[in-house]
C-alpha cells in the first residue's frame, strides 16, 4: 500500500503537468523579482513568500519519493534547490549591515535558475556545460597559451610611445591627437598594447569581434605617424590572422567539446529517469 502511494506520488512529482506548474511559479517569481527592482511593494513580498512555500513543498515531495537518501543528496540539482529554499527563509533584517542585506537579495535572484530544473532539455544543457568543463579546461589552456604569445608579440610591435618608455614631447602630442581622433577609443582607455595584460584583453576583444577593425585602423594610422615600428601591412596581417585563428578555430574547439557531450548526457539522463521509475514500480 505504501509502495503504491509512493509510486503514485512519484508519478505526480515527475509528471509533465507538475513540471509545467512549477515552471509557471518560477516565471511568476522571476517577474516579481524584476518588478521589485523598480519599486518594492508588500504585494511582491507576499507573492515571493507563496512561491517559496511552493518550492518547499516541491523539494519535500521529491525527498519523499527519493530512491535513497544518498541518491537524493548526491544530485547537484537537489542541493541547489535546498540552497535556494533555505536562503529564502533567511530574513533580510537579520543584520543591520547593508552588504549582508544586498547579498541576501542577490540570493533570491538565484531562484530564477530553478527554471533549468523543471525542463529536461534545459537541464541537459546545464549538464552538458558542467560535463564539458573538463574538456574546456584544456581548450582554455591552449587558448591562453596562444593569447599569451600573441600578446607579447603585440606589445613589442604595437606599443604606443608613453612617458614611461622615454617618448619625446612631440610623440606624446601625436599619441594624444591619435586617441582623440580614433573611433571607439574613449579618453579613459589605455593603450591597447601598452602592457601584457592590456594586450591580452585586446586580443579577447578581437576574438569576440568587438571593434577589432577599428583597432586595426587606429594602429595603421599610428604606423603612418611613425608611432609604432612596423608598417601597416604587419598590423593588418597580425589582426586578421589572430581573428581568423581565434574566432574560427579556437572557439570551434569549444563548440566541438560541447556537442560531443550532449548526446552522451541526454542518453544517461533519460536512462537514469527510467531506472528510478522502474525501481518504484517494482
End-to-end Cα distance, whole Å, is: 13 Å
**Mass-distribution shape:** elongated
CATH class of the largest domain, named Mainly Alpha
* Alpha-beta content class: mainly alpha
Number of helices: 11
Major beta-sheet overview: none
- Taken in chain order, the helices and strands follow as HHHHHHHHHHH
Query: How many beta-strand elements?
Result: 0
Instruction: Domain count, please report it.
Output: 2
Stretches where pLDDT is under 50 for at least 5 consecutive residues are none
As a whole number of angstroms, the C-alpha radius of gyration is 27 Å
Mean pLDDT metric: 78
- CATH topology term of the largest domain: Helix Hairpins
Q: Helix proportion of residues, in percent?
A: over 70%
How would you describe this protein?
This protein is mainly alpha-helical and 282 residues long. It has two domains: 2-118, Voltage-gated potassium channels. Chain C (Four Helix Bundle (Hemerythrin (Met), subunit A), Up-down Bundle); 134-260, Helix Hairpins, CATH 1.10.287. The chain is built from eleven helices and no strands. Helix 2 runs antiparallel to helix 3, helix 3 packs antiparallel against helix 5 and helix 7 crosses helix 9 (196-208).
Briefly say what this structure is.
The chain has 282 residues and is mainly α.
What would the keywords be for this entry?
2 domains, 0% strand, 76% helix, Helix Hairpins, 282 residues, Four Helix Bundle (Hemerythrin (Met), subunit A), mainly alpha
Topology:
Blueprint: H1 2-13, H2 16-36, H3 42-64, H4 69-73, H5 76-88, H6 98-109, H7 120-158, H8 169-181, H9 196-208, H10 212-224, H11 232-281
Helix pairs in contact: 1-3, 2-3, 3-5, 7-9, 7-11, 9-11, 10-11
Amino acid at each position: 500500500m505504501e509502495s503504491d502511494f509512493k509510486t503514485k506520488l512519484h508519478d505526480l512529482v515527475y509528471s509533465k503537468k507538475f513540471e509545467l506548474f512549477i515552471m509557471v511559479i518560477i516565471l511568476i517569481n522571476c517577474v516579481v523579482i524584476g518588478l521589485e527592482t523598480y519599486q518594492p511593494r508588500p504585494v511582491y513580498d507576499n507573492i515571493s513568500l507563496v512561491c517559496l512555500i511552493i518550492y518547499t513543498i516541491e523539494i519535500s515531495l521529491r525527498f519523499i519519493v527519493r530512491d535513497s537518501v544518498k541518491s537524493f543528496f548526491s544530485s547537484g540539482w537537489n542541493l541547489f534547490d535546498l540552497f535556494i529554499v533555505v536562503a529564502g527563509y533567511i530574513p533580510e533584517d537579520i543584520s543591520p549591515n547593508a552588504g549582508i542585506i544586498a547579498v541576501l537579495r542577490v540570493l533570491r535572484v538565484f531562484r530564477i535558475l530553478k527554471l533549468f530544473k523543471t525542463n529536461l532539455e534545459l537541464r541537459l544543457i546545464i549538464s552538458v556545460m558542467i560535463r564539458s568543463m573538463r574538456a574546456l579546461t584544456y581548450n582554455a589552456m591552449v587558448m591562453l597559451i596562444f593569447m599569451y604569445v600573441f600578446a607579447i608579440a603585440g606589445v613589442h610591435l604595437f606599443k604606443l610611445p608613453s612617458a614611461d618608455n622615454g617618448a619625446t614631447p612631440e610623440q606624446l602630442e601625436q599619441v594624444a591627437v591619435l586617441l582623440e581622433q580614433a573611433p571607439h577609443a574613449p579618453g579613459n582607455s589605455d593603450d591597447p598594447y601598452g602592457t601584457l595584460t592590456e594586450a591580452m584583453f585586446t586580443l579577447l576583444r578581437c576574438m569576440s569581434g568587438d571593434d577589432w577593425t577599428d583597432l586595426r585602423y587606429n594602429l595603421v594610422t599610428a604606423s603612418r605617424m611613425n608611432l609604432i615600428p612596423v608598417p601597416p601591412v604587419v598590423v593588418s596581417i597580425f589582426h586578421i590572422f589572430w581573428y581568423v585563428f581565434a574566432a574560427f578555430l579556437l572557439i570551434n574547439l569549444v563548440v566541438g567539446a560541447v556537442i560531443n557531450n550532449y548526446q552522451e548526457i541526454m542518453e544517461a539522463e533519460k536512462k537514469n529517469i527510467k531506472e528510478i521509475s522502474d525501481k518504484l514500480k517494482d
